[in-house]
Amino acid sequence: MSLTPTKHSLLIVDDTPTNLDVLVDFFIEHNFEVFVATDGESALEQLAHIQPDLILLDIMMPGLDGFETCQRIKAQERLKDIPVIFMTALSDTTDKVQGFQVGAVDYITKPIQHEEVLARVNTHMQLRSLQARLESINEELEQRVAERTADLQKALLDVEQLKQQLEAENSYLLEELKLNHNFDEILTASDAMTRVLHQVEQVAETNATVLILGETGTGKELFARAIHNLSPRKSRPLVKVNCASLPSNLIESELFGHVRGAFTGALQTRIGRFSLADGGTIFLDELGELPLELQAKLLRVLQEGEFERLGDANTTHVDVRVIAATNRDLEKAVERGEFRQDLYYRLNVFPLELPPLRQRPQDIPLLAEHFMKRYAPKVGRKVETLSTSAVKKLQSYHWPGNVRELEHVVERAVILSPGKHLVLDDWTPSQMLTPEALEFATLEDLERNHIDKVLDFTDGRVSGPKGAARILDINPKTLESRMKKLGIKRKR
User: Fold this and answer.
1) Which among 192, 281, 292, 411 could bridge 321 via Cys, Cβ 3.0 to 4.6 Å?
2) Considering only CA atoms, which of 401, 408, 491, 411 is closest in space to residue 451?
């Protein structure tokens, strides 16, 4: 199937009818579409409705001459690229220069030679066609370059973000390798702590938010690691944030990240801890210190799994299991208006309360021996045994710093011990346990501990002549009811 060549169009402007008739007939014979005008005004009127490929324009015309008409044509955005060829009997160089200055591309001198004018018209038509094609190719190339540049920039951004995330993960993982977080590190002979460990096993396999409560040094981070390591998320990072150690003006950036230029000093995009923990677990230590203005953003992450980085209008979605810890009484903080009530309820889905070391004295020799064996090789000592007197001395102390304080005391004692026995002679605790110091224990704690001791003595028997109920002088049914309320299980 052959295609008919596109017919080119001309506008011929001349005030001499004879010239017009001859030119019109000539160009029609050569397959041109021809429009005519007899002066500049009528030419401009026609150009409001047509857009010819080329204009043949006489210079000497009544009213608007060719120079003024050309100048007005070139002033219009839609018409400025149409080639204009002047037709004139003038041969003065000044006139020709003026014609080129107003935008003409060529001159044809009257009387017009038809073959010459055809050659010039075809030449400028071809130049115009080549120019249009070149412009089209350039536009297409610019579009392709822009698209490839955008794709490349996006790929570079993705690579940079992945690099930052991998670097951050690597940094955190290196920190994790330096820490002991084996579940076996939680040493206990205490029933109260054993109950907490049982709760850890129950909640670890879920995605429930866990709130670990306890005094400073009771091992909240160790329990958070245990929950993570027993969970389906154990192959992903456990990311720790100490809310109390971060300046209030940096904690939002630390938690949620920021983009470059988000604030003064933000020289590059930063991956926040929540993004880093995506698919894993985030441990928010000392959560009670989180500024009130950030608590709403944390609540949104807990409820919706989404947030915005500082300086970024785009929403980031994450899948993160949250474990929080605090030594503060959050209920009282809520009453004082220091902590959001809705956030407290959202965090308090599964609370774990760690008993202080003074409430589980039976754990002290286990922990002291563990720390003794850990630090002796590190400091070049051969300490191997813990005397009964040392144990009694350690158990008589109030331990306001709990397990962490015990660890430091044992480490110092190992350094000062010259032989195989741990020496505590230089350690003089300032808070020895006295009858007054026991006032911290509630009646429920005292009752639970007393029943535990009696059950230990009876080897778990509740009823019968040698049962715990006989020793406690209460009905066996009553004892079983109290055990159930206090969470005490039979020893066998």
Assistant:
1) 281
2) 491
pLDDT category of residue 98 using cuts at 50, 70 and 90: confident
From the centroid of its chain, how far is CA 341? Answer: 26
Report which secondary-structure segment, H or E, holds 42: helix 40-47
Give phi and psi for 325, each to the nearest 5.
-145, 145
Q: Rounded to an integer, what distance in angstroms lies between the CA atom of residue 404 and that of residue 406?
A: 5
Residue 311, strand partner residues: none
pLDDT digits (tens, 9 = 90+) for 300-332: 999 999 988 888 888 889 999 999 999 989 999
- Helical residues (DSSP H) of 30-113, grouped into ranges: 40-47, 66-74, 93-101
Q: Which two tokens stand for residue 16?
A: 């001499």
Q: What is the pLDDT of residue 240?
A: 92
Would you say 290 and 243 are in contact if contact means Cβ atoms under 8 Å apart?
yes
Kindly report, residue by residue over 186-222, the tens digit of the pLDDT: 888 888 898 999 999 999 999 999 999 999 889 999 9
Are 447 and 460 contacting, i.e. CB atoms less than 8 angstroms apart? no
Neighbour tally for 68: CB within 10 Å: 14
First to last CA, the chain: 98
Confidence bin at 174 (pLDDT 50/70/90): very low
What are the structure tokens assigned to 301, written together?
Answer: 């992450």
**Summary count for the chain: helices (H), strands (E):** 18, 14
Query: DSSP code of 427?
Result: -
CA 331 – CA 364 distance, rounded (Å): 31
CA pair distance 192, 199, nearest whole angstrom: 11
**Chain centroid offset of residue 5 CA:** 59
Measured CA angle at 94 (ends 89, 100), to 5 deg: 85
Looking at 305-442, list the stretches that DSSP marks H as alpha helix, in order from N- to C-terminal side: 330-335, 341-347, 364-379, 388-395, 402-416
* H-run or E-run covering 483: helix 476-486
pLDDT score of 436 more than 50: no
Asked if residues 230 and 222 have their Cβ atoms less than 8 Å apart, the reply is no
- Put the strands of the sheet holding 32-37 in their side by side order: 32-37, 8-13, 54-58, 84-88, 106-109
Count CA within 13 A, CB hemisphere, residue 317.
Answer: 1
Count of alpha carbons within 13 Å of 409, Cβ hemisphere only?
A: 28
d(C-alpha 237, C-alpha 472), whole Å: 50
Residue range 356-374: mean pLDDT, rounded: 91
Q: How far apart are CA 33 and CA 226, in angstroms?
A: 88
Q: Write down the residue that tokens 């007939």 correspond to.
A: 25
Looking at per-residue pLDDT, the higher value among 285 and 434 belongs to 285
Given the structure tokens 């996006």, which residue do they identify? 154
Give percent of the chain with pLDDT exceeding 90: 38
Contact between residue 283 and residue 224 where contact means Cβ atoms under 8 Å apart: yes
Beta-strand relationship, 210-213 and 106-109 = unpaired
